[in-house]
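Sequence in, structure out. Go.
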Amino acid sequence: MLTVLKSSTKSLTYFAFLSAENPHYLTEDVIFDLSDTTNLIVSGRIPNYVAIDSLIATFKTTGVAVSVNNITQHSDTTANDYSSGLKYVVQAENGETNEYTIKVQVFTGLPVLTIETENGVPIVSKYDYVKATYVLDGFGILPDVSGILEIQGRGNSTFQMPKKPYQMKLDKKTAMLGPTFGQDKKWLLLANYSDKTMLRTETAFAMSRLSNLDFTPASRFVELFLNGSYDGTYQLMQKIEVSASRVNITKNGFLLEVDQLTRMTDDDVYFETSRHLFNIKEPELAVDGTQYDQIKNFITEAEDALYGPDFKDPENGYARYLDIESFVDWYLINEISRNNDAVFFSSCYMNLAPGGKLKMGPVWDFDIAFGNVDYNGNESPTGFYIKNADTWIKRLFEDPAFASLVKTRFKYFLSNKASIIKQIDGNTSTLHFSAAENNDRWNTMGIYVWPNAVVFDTYEEETRYLKQWINVRMSWLATAFENIQNSSAKETNEKGRLR
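Output:
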């Protein structure tokens, strides 16, 4: 008796979305890569942003049947929703199957935030909100959320640039970055126009997350479509404000920013010591009220103690007022990055919880850090900057015990350099398509954008420069901090008395 063996062939040999079958979605054919035969992964990219909930696939197979969720698929006619990925099961004549994972990347692969202002009005002010609606298409990276918001510009020099940063105020508290980072109304969109890597702020945040600072703003990269037009790659992030999921110092605490008088507006409430201006970001206070006097007196007393003759005294000196651990970490993050504005010029935040000591942080604003600035000598990865500026930090370094703590703590950051570089590499890969689209929109590659210290033609060269700069900077600081410790060791025998 002759036995007929049924075939076990069950391969997917071709998979595509053809423009002829998907005229409302595609202007060109998208042919998928089937080279990952081991893991049975089929991947492809749709170059423009479209909804992919009704795409029709064209495929070829050596099997006798193809199904998705037990529904038979017919090439060129069956429509599916590919927004969450699908499993294609190819069945052989003998009943055996292979399961292929279909991975569809849309546009750049990043979440897409679409904002439509009321009547399409432009956003031209940092002080007046514009009403709008929004839709966040999270692509599985962020939650899919939508609603009503108000939006205005933000920033100082950055708002003067062609690609504007924005502040959004949602009509209700929403977890735009997912439940881990809490629900809030105010969220920011950083443009990173002058930072062509778009990674400097996120790199500094990575260091902050390694530190002992209480709060580091969470952020994710998104693509922004504003009033129907692509507006580039933005960093969607938490605003620095008092909140249970942000700077958690309760309503009786204080959030301060060291800033400049020329940047104050009529709505700002601030005070000046003999050395610096402190803008009271939260809570909202009346000048000369009880809380206003409370924080002004505390900061004045802290500064007086820091610059007093007994400033090194652990009981009556600066340690009575300042949380030294936070000052050390804040200083190191800003010195490693050689952050141009961190010499108590602007974006230098402090916070004070009821009954606590004054803490530095959160860290903020690094677009002209890490060698991306052509003045003040800050393009150089060598030399001290924050340490030598006429601020509280310079005075702290006059205490050998503080210098010793900095030296010890720097070794921790140095030991994590590889993980910092690894994150840059990961983000560079994530932004591969995004950087190209952003440059098509804003055309910044290969030209000088204030205040670039160097200009490269490609995104890869920009990120390579960032990594090389960090490597040289870390190496120089390792030697410099060692020399500081050696020179100051003779001045004190006290160890760790500020802990």
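Check: The two ends are 89 Å apart (CA to CA). DSSP finds eight helices and 23 strands in the chain.
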